[in-house]
Amino acid sequence: MNMSILRSRLKTWGLSVAIGLYALPATTHAQANDGTDKYFEISKNLEIFSNVFKELNQFYVDPIEPGKMVKTGVDAMLNDLDPYTNLITEADAEDYELQMTGKYGGIGAATRTNDAGDIIISDLFEGGPIDKAGIKPGDIVVSINGQRIKGKSSDDVGLLMRGAPGTKLTMVIKHPLNGKESTKEITREEIKLSSVPYASLTGADKNIAYVYLTQFTQNCGRDVRNALDSLKRAQPALKGVVLDLRSNPGGLLDEAVNVCNIFVDRGQLVVSTKGKNKDWDKQYKTQTTSWDTEIPLTILVNHGSASASEIVAGTTQDLDRGLIIGTRSFGKGLVQTVRTLGYNSRLKVTTAKYYTPTGRCIQALDYSHRNDDGSVSSVPDSLKKPFKTKIGRTVYDGGGIEPDVKMDDERLSPLAITLLSKGFIFDYATQYYYSHPTIAPAADFTLSEKEFKDFENWLSGKDYSYKTESEELLALLKEKADKEKYFDNIKNEFNTLSAKLSHDKKQDLNNNKAEVINLLNNEIVSRYYYQRGRVINKLKLDDNDLKKAIMLLLNTQEYKSLLKV
């Protein structure tokens, strides 16, 4: 789960965490004075904080909420650091375990909230408790265990749904089209989200192994290796491997080493860490025999590939073991360690930076030097240092992993973002599902021209207005011109330009037709074939990065030429 979600779920932090700050090591007189000054400041300010809290609790005119107030203080303290240093409260423990293990106790469903405040089932875990109960995406959750949930936050709903395996809950569901309500009794189970939801043979001759790795959870290295073993048994004459790390946010550092170990042999340095505390200066090397050190390898990355994904991509690049394809990765080169605080709370704190085998750190943002307004700047190109790979290719630090083969940055259009955020893609898929008992296999399904026209007609009259970037800049110009008393002088020119920039929604729909159809395909397919269907549909019908990877793996000469100085 995204770290910003964890931060938003902070609960209460007791002041007893400060107890561990007082033990001072034996040191020289000068060092002792420095240490004494530092710890005196800590002690003094903690006492001030405690006294302010007590005075407010006793004398403030209205009742205060102690947990909420302390949370605000902790939020402010952590917000001054990097976004990966988080408090994990007892209530957040399950979310943390899900990140690390891919497992949790619950019913196997995700929810979304519509504009009316209704809680809607948005995704199902195939074969999970809610799937077994016959509940479908689009169904509206009326109540859980007798508690009506309209208007509740996603966090509150998630807490009601999760629980120990074997425990039961009663859910009242309303059909999204006819409004009929039904009651379902659901038994919670341990839900294990696979780190490798899809692997297959691809290419014209089915001789390329494709593995999709979504997150670096426990044993994901083993899962990748098992997937490759299975594909190798089906096709002994493999020509190459595509490892898809796009939008993989990372996870366990040890598992990044294990994934690298699949393609590089025992004893190879994969990553080193360095921190203020020398205890965090460590080297991580591969520990076992590889799966295959010679087979051609491509790794797909994008802006969402972070942390452990970047370790794997960076190590592969540094060792010239394979080609990185896609767009520049996220740029997270920080390592977190979890510290126990008591009361079932933990602090996930950034303790070090990691470095790939060449010695480069790919951290893109400098959190230690904030701008005057509190914002954080990217590492400027002028400060990025060059490093040499094993055979002498030049790579750089300080900005994520730059692919060896750069692809177009396929960001969503403003129209597509609006259709998704307002739920129109989701709602149309719900309607489509109930009017089509079956569809083509996930790999083949796509909306016909007539069906897209039906969507266009369904959308007419609905508000999916938005501002283009040009319109937003023009609005900002008007605001500034008004403030500086210049607008009257440019009013006519402004109105002319505004009229020219004004977009036609219907024309925009046609201009972005291919993109919208892909989004609709993906959402509709998921209603019949779950998450696996989403992956298959996108890979077969809409994946230029994968097509490029396959082409390079089959073109040995071009593949090798890109791995030369």
TrEMBL record:
Domain (PDZ) ranges: 95-176
Phylogenetic classification of the source organism: Bacteria, Pseudomonadati, Bacteroidota, Chitinophagia, Chitinophagales
Family the entry assigns: Belongs to the peptidase S41A family.
UniProt-listed GO biological process terms: proteolysis; signal transduction
Protein name: S41A family C-terminal processing peptidase-3
CC per GO annotation: outer membrane-bounded periplasmic space
Single annotated GO MF: serine-type peptidase activity
InterPro entries assigned to the protein according to its UniProt record, in alphabetical order: ClpP/crotonase-like_dom_sf (IPR029045), PDZ (IPR001478), PDZ_sf (IPR036034), Peptidase_S41A (IPR004447), Tail-specific_protease (IPR005151)
Keyword vocabulary terms for this entry: Hydrolase, Protease, Serine protease, Signal
Pfam families hit by this protein: PDZ, Peptidase_S41
Recorded superkingdom: Bacteria
Signal peptide (residue range): 1-30
